[in-house]
Amino acid sequence: MATKSRRPYKIPKPLLCNADKTINLALVDEYIAKHEGRMPRYKYLENLYAGFHDIFNQPEKEEWKPDNRLAVNFPRYITDTFLGYARGIPIKVTHEDKTINDAITDFNRLNNTADLDYNLDKLAAVYGHGWEYFYQDEESRTRIISVKPKRCFVVYDDTVRGKALFGCRYEYRPDGKRVGEYMTPTEIVRFEDNKTLESKTNPYGMIPLVEHVMNDERIGLFEHVAGMVEVYNRAIAEKANDVDSFAEAYLSIIGAEVDEDGVKRIRDDRVINFYGTDNARDVLVQFLTKPTADGTQENLLERLETLIYQTAMVANISDESFGNVSGVALAYKLQAMDNLASTLDRKDVKSLSKRYKIFCSLATNVKNKDAYIDIEYQPLRNVPKNLAEEAQTAKVLEGVVSKETQLKVLSIVDDPADEIKTMEKEQEKAQTQMLEQMQRQQEMFGQTETEEEEAEMNGQ
User: Fold this and answer.
1) pLDDT band (50, 70, 90) for residue 280
2) Does 416 have pLDDT greater than 70?
3) Domains of the chain: which residue ranges?
4) Model confidence pTM above 0.85
5) CB atoms inside a 10 Å sphere around CB 267
6) What distances in angstroms separate CA 82 from CA 48, 185, 266, 309, 346, one per listed residue?
7) C-alpha to C-alpha distances, 31 to 24, 35, 84, 239, 382, nearest whole angstrom
8) What is the pLDDT at residue 118?
């Protein structure tokens, strides 16, 4: 019986609550139950990325039928390719104030934010969103970790503003007990099942959770092509079944009787010889083969593969068309993926702004709590560079645009303004060296230019 592709879930809506309700463990327990209703979706998307697709859960066929189970892991390829393109080079975070910039650099180094940000974007790509959690370590340093949306959520008020009321992070221990904590802007409460263990003041003055999203709808990167992936898996598995059916085809002998010993000889010696009968010419020996639709299957597989990449808006960089192409041609091929990456850029910058707002809320980190406003973010693309083509373009722009704009064309130049300063210093150094060399040459002849001129005049 044919199977149907379907999602085992609905896209979840934000968790809303009346702003007048008292936030306590009973209310948190109510929303944990609602949050756990999202687990089928999270588990399904997680399995897709890991390669455990629905084809492995289909009913088994009869023993005499081939039953191959194949899964082409498009979700992982799409996710890793996109993240390598969009976040292969970490977002550059800088501040014009050196003291604040150094504090941010130390914070990023302590928390290895380059790797953390990649993991957060990976959660957003797989689940549609992920969470970043703040805490203070034993040395009162601000630390951050990534948390899967399976174990974390935030509840918002039901007004137009949608203000965050409280957040919760929880998990189940091996003994079945649920442990975690819920957070409001003023306190952080640890709990175990329905029992409060500890309550302490929230040092940040805001919920220490930052959401990283793939889009406003919180739809995963490959979620909308999941149905096509499942159909592709079944189609390619059936092709493998057809190959097995052909290899195991039955031998049909019509018009002659073959005893058991004869069957063994045919099987072992691979020789068929019938003689001594008047109707030998009427004996028909042939294999019974199952009708196949190889052309139809190939067309379906090719169409599905194209649609999967087109719909996911991620380029198939393994395709032969991604050979030696010019920069413009490559840009066109990557245009859809670049549009998708630009959307992620905006979402990430918004999330990073909140991260550093929480970081700057503590005077032990920086003195100015509003310093996060002036932080600059520079997302970069991880694409192959044609330096010769870039250099040629920069040369053509000589005298047409400013020096800084000209240098921006070169991918090897990270900061055009700093590069200009470096070039000026090198020019000054070269001029100084030239003057020093001229002075040494003059000293070798024992006279200066002025003395030479005076000697010439006296000679006249």
Assistant:
1) low
2) yes
3) 16-222+342-374, 227-309
4) no
5) 9
6) 16, 35, 56, 11, 16
7) 11, 6, 36, 47, 40
8) 96
